[in-house]
Amino acid sequence: MKPIIGVTPLYDEERKSIWLLPGYLELIEKNGGIPLILPLTTNKEVLESFLTSCDGFLFTGGQDIDPSFYGEEKRSVCGSPCRVRDEMEGYLMREVIAKDKPLLAICRGVQLLNALYGGTLYQDLPIEHPTSLLHQMTLPYNKVQHEVDLIGNSLLHRVLDRNKLGVNSYHHQAIKEVGNGLEVTAVSTDGVIEGVSLKSAKFVLGVQWHPEFFDASTSENKALMAAFLSAC
């Protein structure tokens, strides 16, 4: 049977609605899984039903995380958080890991993973980690913006079987201090952490770039999703 993957929704503040980029769903469906868009809710009974029925979870990109999640005051350079989403995904991610279900976290997702394990974030890279490398690229997003080095024998290195990877880049925040128990798997050429995994888990991997903007059938996405869905 194909694994069912719960996908966290994006939230549109202006329209007060949830939505999702099709690329997230295509990553799953075109590589052998069944995507299921989750509701935006903090109702633990509802979330528990998905924790039971889903074989794995994909945490998507989106709004900046409230800095209170990593023990800091919100600065003016930090975007407006979605507090319902922070609460929902914080609870869901903790429970997914506690149940040892596979988890793939993208952009905001990897930042949330780091925060939940006691790590911190740059609230704004251009101000707190100035570099000549542009991390917030412009359209189109399905092109390589910069390279990352994959750390030898890390989960991501084993999955992709290479030392370097060309990635897109659309974020103004990033991991600053790495959370307890997390292993760095990828670093950009300017020293920004671009990937982590949870060493004690069956499969918990987060990446800072956006694989959903590339075709689901690229060799990199096929390898990434094969490892994730196989674990599911």
Question: What does the secondary structure layout of this molecule look like, with pairings?
Answer:
Elements: E1 4-7, E2 10-12, E3 17-19, H1 22-29, E4 34-37, H2 44-53, E5 56-59, H3 83-98, E6 103-106, H4 108-116, E7 121-122, H5 125-128, E8 146-150, H6 155-160, E9 164-167, E10 174-175, E11 182-188, E12 193-198, E13 204-207, H7 219-231
Parallel strand pairs: 1-4, 1-5, 5-6, 6-13
Antiparallel strand pairs: 2-3, 7-10, 8-9, 8-11, 11-12, 12-13
Helix pairs in contact: 2-3
Q: What is the rounded distance between the termini? A: 11 Å
Largest sheet, in brief, is: 9 strands, mixed
Strand sequence of the main sheet, in spatial order?
4-1-5-6-13-12-11-8-9
- Given the C-alpha coordinates, what overall shape results? globular
User: Residue-averaged pLDDT, rounded?
Assistant: 97
> What's the alpha carbon Rg, rounded to whole Å?
16 Å
Strand coverage percent: 15-25%
What's the helix count? 7
Number of strands: 13
Low-confidence spans: pLDDT under 50, at least 5 residues? Answer: none
Helix and strand pattern: EEEHEHEHEHEHEHEEEEEH
Helix/strand class: alpha/beta
Kindly state the percentage of residues in helix.
Answer: 25-40%
